[in-house]
Amino acid sequence: MILSAVQIGTKLYAPEENRAWIEAAVRREAAEGAALVVLPELAVSGYGSDPDRLAESAEPRDGPTLDLLARLSAELKLVLVCGYCESADGALYNSAVLTAPGRAPAHYRKLHLFDREKEVFRPGDLGLVMAETDIGTIGICVCYDLRFVEVARGLALGGADLLAVPTAWVGGFDAVARDDGGYIGQARGAVVQANLNQLPMVCASQSGGDQGIRFLGSSLIADAFGTCVAGPMGEDETGVIRAEMTLEAIRAARIRSDRIRPREDRRTDTYGVSVNGRLH
Fold first, then answer.
1. What are the φ/ψ torsions at residue 39 (nearest 5 degrees)?
2. Residue 262 and residue 267: Cα distance in Å, rounded?
3. 109 pairs with which residues across the strands?
4. 88 partner at 20 to 30 Å CA-CA among 42, 95, 118, 149?
5. Residues 51 and 216: beta-carbon distance below 8 Å
């Protein structure tokens, strides 16, 4: 299966224009044979912090973005994951939705809010989210969630085969902007966690600076051995990276040898991870 991460700096507070761009990008990826396409965090509204403007760009979970993605998934026979600004119960959420042919949509609300997001959004309350699809079980998290190692570990132990990560990576967390290999801290962390959790990651970031924020780009795809097989992209790049994987190879990576079986080697008599109320 071909996995795609789409990187763009979307237009701020312009959901209709951004949805049109998203549809065009998805159709191009379908023509390339993509089975999964991941788009950035807040790709529909743009990544802004003005509560009034965000509210104008927000939508309910069953709004026009879900309609568009569900229609494209059904028509083009692929899985889509996209970030958007959700309105519910008088609050705004930094959310992502997954659509897949013949399946109910999966909705996720970002659990860990970063910096000024805390002034605008309500923290997620839907727990860790995974969706069964024809290409495997896909876990969803958003950007800053990856800084909390319990998230990827919990999704892996809960049964996810790969992780879709809409992001809008910015500075402000790490003392050094890039390491000696040219990776930002967020990208390096994703690659390391992919290896530690035997969980491939498809990370799609915002890019550029047109929204008043300097995004770091760095969209990437990592396999279950922690190899960056596509990307990271540049800060100002708009485009797509792709990688090909098989579900069989992803699952086989959970056993490194007869004596190296990371998931079986966990000391659950000493520690555990609770995923949506179930202890692993």
1. -115, 165
2. 10
3. 95
4. 149
5. no
- Rounded to the nearest 5°, which phi and psi values hold at 182? 85, 10
**Side chain identity at 278, as an amino acid letter?**
R
271 residue type, one letter = Y
Query: Residue 87: left if φ>0, alpha if ψ -120 to 50, beta else—which one?
Result: beta
Amino acid at 246: T
Residue 237 carries which side chain, given as an amino acid letter? E
By three-state DSSP, how is residue 2 classified?
Answer: strand
**CA atoms of 84 and 65, how far apart (whole Å):** 8
Q: In a 3-state reduction of DSSP, which class is residue 220? A: strand
Element (H, E) at 71: helix 64-76
pLDDT in tens, 205-245: 999 999 999 999 999 999 999 999 999 999 999 999 999 99
Report yes or no on whether pTM surpasses 0.90: yes
CATH architecture, domain 2-279? 4-Layer Sandwich (3.60)
3-class secondary structure, 167: strand
DSSP for 108-164 reads: EE-SS--GGGGGTPPPP-S-SEEEEETTEEEEE--GGGGGSHHHHHHHHHHT-SEEE
